[in-house]
């Protein structure tokens, strides 16, 4: 029987685990396996939130109810240092972000509208989301407090959505058009700290760049001779079908390739 996309994604996930286990200094690679959720649970979420989940996301959750993959590094005789994290909420933990919170007195207050409201994302040309009734926004990954990966709807009844990154200053950055591409993007970056910031004008911190140079050098390289940025090269690489991805080649730097 031919594998469906969700099954292929799971196979690639296990390939990434095996790849990490071969890297010098990497230890404690742990995939917290989760069984798939049920169609009833997905339907319950949709009814509760009056919102249709995209088909690729639903198919994934039927295979695995979210993901948590962690790994550490051990340098010399030091204690293991937790470094990589690939995470997606279980379906019941996918909560809507409204831009509202409660103050100490228990009163609901609205956050100041971020400077991106109603402006366009420079790379995609898409209008950026805002905390208004025109959008429905759900958190998929809290990014260890460094931002939020969000499922953004412009029309919640159509099931059409996009994946955006909300940084800590409440600025929006477009990532990809669908969940399947985002999942593969997450695997390509090995869950390294701050990887979503590669797709922003903020960029990586110096420390994060050092980790990328060690474990995923090709992810931050720029082909100056062709005038192509890393981001464009990556989007091209994601145009292949999931079962065409060669994990052993994806993470090699230019100097490593033969």
Automatic annotation (TrEMBL):
InterPro entries from the UniProt entry: Knr4/Smi1-like_dom (IPR018958), Knr4/Smi1-like_sf (IPR037883), TPGS2 (IPR039231)
Transmembrane segments: none
Domain Knr4/Smi1-like: 36-185
Organism: Octopus sinensis (East Asian common octopus)
Name listed for the protein in its UniProt record: Tubulin polyglutamylase complex subunit 2-like isoform X2
Any one Pfam family match given in the protein's UniProt record, by short name: SMI1_KNR4
Matching SMART domains: SMI1_KNR4
Region (Disordered): 105-127
Ranges in coiled-coil conformation: none
Signal peptide: none
């Amino acid at each position: 029987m031919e594998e469906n996309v969700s099954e292929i994604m799971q196979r690639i996930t296990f390939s990434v685990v095996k790849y990490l286990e071969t890297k010098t200094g990497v230890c404690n690679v742990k995939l917290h396996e989760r069984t798939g959720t049920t169609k009833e649970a997905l339907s319950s979420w949709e009814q509760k939130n009056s919102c249709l989940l995209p088909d690729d996301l639903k198919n994934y959750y039927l295979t695995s109810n979210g993901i948590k993959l962690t790994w550490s590094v051990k340098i010399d005789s030091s204690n293991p240092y937790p470094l990589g994290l690939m995470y997606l909420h279980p379906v019941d933990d996918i909560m809507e972000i409204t831009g509202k919170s409660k103050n100490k007195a228990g009163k609901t207050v609205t956050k100041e509208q971020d400077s991106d409201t109603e402006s366009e994302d420079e790379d995609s040309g898409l209008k950026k989301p805002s905390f208004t009734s025109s959008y429905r926004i759900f958190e998929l990954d809290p990014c260890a407090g460094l931002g939020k990966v969000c499922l953004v709807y412009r029309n919640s009844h159509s099931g059409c959505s996009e994946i955006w990154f909300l940084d800590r200053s409440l600025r929006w950055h477009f990532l990809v058009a669908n969940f399947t591409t985002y999942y593969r993007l997450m695997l390509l970056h090995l869950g390294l700290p701050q990887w979503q910031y590669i797709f922003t004008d903020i960029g990586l911190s110096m420390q994060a760049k050092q980790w990328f140079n060690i474990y995923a050098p090709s992810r931050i390289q720029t082909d100056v001779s062709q005038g192509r940025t890393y981001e464009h090269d990556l989007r091209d690489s994601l145009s292949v079908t999931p079962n065409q991805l060669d994990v052993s080649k994806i993470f090699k730097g230019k100097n490593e390739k033969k």
